[in-house]
Amino acid sequence: MASDTATKRPERLRQLLAVLAVWLRRTFTSRLAWTIIGVNLAALAVLLAGMWALTENRRGLVDAKVDSLTAQAEIIANIITETSVSGDAPGPRMDADGAREVLRRLSQLYVPDETRALLYEPGPRRIADSDLIAGAVEQSALPAPGEAAAAGPGLWRRIEDAVSGLFLNAEERARLDRDLIEEVKAAFETGEPQAGLRRGPDGERIVSVTIPIQLIQAVVGTVTYESYDFDELIAAERAAILPYALTAFIAIMTGALWLTGSIARPVRRLADAARAVRLAGGRRVPLPDMSRRRDEIGDMGRAFTAMTDALYDRLDAIESFAADVSHEIKNPLTSIRSAAEILPLAKDAARRDKLIAVIQHDVKRLDRLITDISNASRLDAELAREDVSVIDLGRLLTDLSALEMGPGDAGSGRPEVRLKTQGSDLKIRGHEGPLSRVFINLIENAVTFSPPDGVVTISIRRVGTAHGRIIVEVSDEGPGIPPDNLETIFQRFYTQRPEGAAFGSHSGLGLAIARQIVSAHGGRISAANRSDRTGARFTVDLPATSRAP
Known about the structure:
The protein is an alpha+beta fold and 549 residues long. Helix content is 55%, strand content 16%. The strands form 4 sheets. The protein has a 5-stranded antiparallel beta sheet with strand order 4-3-7-6-5, sandwiched between helices. It starts with a helix and ends in a 6-residue tail after the last strand.
């Protein structure tokens, strides 16, 4: 038993690693995933560049270093002025030996590590160096045999210089590029202290202060204080930022991967499903279930599912329609073929006339059937091409009822058609031609089934307020509809004609086309038997236009 458990653990681990590998491969091969990750990393890069620039150009740090060096340099300059500068003829001058002795004694107190003090006399000529006085030796690695020494700063240093240069003004860039001798010359020429950040021979940045040593207005020497730990201070600040940058990187990558999993992967699943639907040849393909998502991806998934289901339903409808059409056309064709085969064998004229009449009747029936099938097949295209307009159903039904029969024509042997209008603002948005076909079909059916002395009633009313609906009812006084056929009558090629009606005079597509048109307008059509008397009632429910405020 223990052996089986030990065997299953590596197998589960391999399965988990395989699933993880598939997930990572799909994630990092997605363009949308790389876009999400790239945008997040670009934002992080901008943030880090700003932090880098802040540490690179912290004027407060430079100013603090300058103030500290200035205080120390002024102490040395004042002591040298008091002890080693004389005003005897031919003019003020500085005793170089005395100045060196002062620097030697004070270097132990005022020249800490990473700091250097230099004395210059007019020329300018260097006369003292605190590093030489303290016996400090600079160490640097020699290049390998056969290799030339590297010239100038390295690539990383050049990148740092380029970034920092973006945030410096022209004066700061000019001061950064001048050397020590130029700084000392400026102090001799102007008699003013010179301070700031400049670049050393190896590309390192040095905070330096040069204080003139002068008696009255005559500059007899300078004291230069240099600090070499500026780059180390900047590096320390950057090292302190590194944990925060790493934490931000982890957070951003986690968010990017989560966004990838919640956006890119569902989109890819929908794309894969779309390709599968295209290649399935009409076979239904299971689609990703995104019904629980309440965001735009969920909306897209539900819309994609609804669109695909509508496509499948349309394919099924086309297949069913083709089968029904084939069946309905075969009936008159079979009758025509049978009559045509028997016609040459008929011996008397009466029988031949009867067969010819059968052929003519079936040809008319076939022509009517083909016409109705053609109209039904073009209906979707017509609804898509025609412009939608505002239709006054009250006016439309008034015109249609007048075409059938008004109250004054009751003696013509046809049922009387009455229109009852309740209220006003009976307007909808739709296609007038197809809707006219619906109501003509319903009125003609009602007239056909009603007795000659009956009444066909058309009523129209609006229910609801701002976003209401228009209800149209067409009632007759005929035999009614069998309860089992209240829904069947809307199927294609279903016919139930009154007694005495000629066989084959109707294709059975009228009510099916009516339901298709009404559904395309966002409405419903239903049939029921009248409860007050015999007869049927067809109800058309359509969305009304909004009332004007």
